[in-house]
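Recap from last week: sequence in, structure out.
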Amino acid sequence: MTCEDVLASRLAVLRGIIRQGFRDAPGQVQGFITRVLRREDGALDGGPLYPETSVDDCLAAVRFGGYPSLAKAGYCLAHKPSMPFSEGVAGAFLHGVERQRERPATTQAQLAGDAMALLGISDGLRAVSRAYPTIESLKAAKTWLRRLLEQHGGSDTCLHRARLLACDLLDAQGRFGQQLAHADDLHVAALDLCLWRNWPDVLRNVRHPDLARRRELFKRLLTDPLPNEGELLHTASWLCGLDVLTDEIAAAAVPDANQVARILAATQGSFRRWRWEEKATRQGSMPARWLIDKEADIQAFLLAVFYPYFGDQLEDEQYLQGFGLRQGRFDFAITNVGLIVEVKVIRIPSDVNDLEAQIADDLSLYFKEANPFESMVVYIYDDRDRPEPEKYPAIRDALKRRSDRIVDVVIVRRPSMIPDRGQRQWSM
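Predicted structure tokens:
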């Protein structure tokens, strides 16, 4: 059985557990599943994962269903940020929070121990605060929920990370930490990947485990015993974790434009051991000096960087079909990504002022209807004797605003061992 067969079989079983158990699951679990899993993900092996749900249905259930229904409503509010909800809907959710605040202490203690319910309510409050930040009762609702999160502990240690995320949704204090969990506890590691995938703006600075641990986690998600049929939270986390890791594998096998930009950005670190000998290390030979002095030198360097990734999909120094007397000539193109990589060199301070006009000219030539490319990454090599790295963000932002076709602008400084431009003399 191939790895693809093992993966497909495991996904089918996990999706089956979700379908079979969804209707009988508590409201907070249903809400979490709808938040982190796409309903149509299982359409090819047994139909949608769960029934269609709406914010109105969730809010109607809050009147009778207690905090599980309130948590489900919170997840539903935050589920589709591209579909705004009315202020009346926001008010109905906050009214449900107010009713929960009036419940007996025993009921609130139950809520305080339920990480998934707390996360759902926190998710809903964040969605409301983004859409209608001036609603009067919002501050009191956040204060109440923060107190439950901070003063009570949950009994399930596997879900502690969900509690930390719920806190960060309220005040962005970074309680979740800077590192995803690894495979020592498989349920925790899978949940971390699931949370990272679905709350990327809150967890944008959180690092993944190293490559060896990610491989171990992927292997265990494929081979360890499956969650039990009633463990829908763990099942949803496993599905989401597998999705994250297979996306990572796919990105490495078939890079996209953003992956190309990341490869280019990493070239700054490759200058760490750049060769520039003061004297030859072998009698009678010239000292090894890898001089980068002009655009052709940078193109040769980038060819060595790109070729192992893209092979025959890589084209360099080609003319594009043009009209009239002018034709665009790109530095590199990656045909299977539909991407052009344009190399620029800045040698003196005034070159920075010319960059925007040069890029505007390139855009007008490269993206005519007859040409097959869709996007561009700009690679700028800063060869100035006095670089100004504090200005790089402004340069990057100005160029990216020229066109949506510019995926990224990567700026690297020349290796520090290469002499200033006026001091480059070759001698034995």
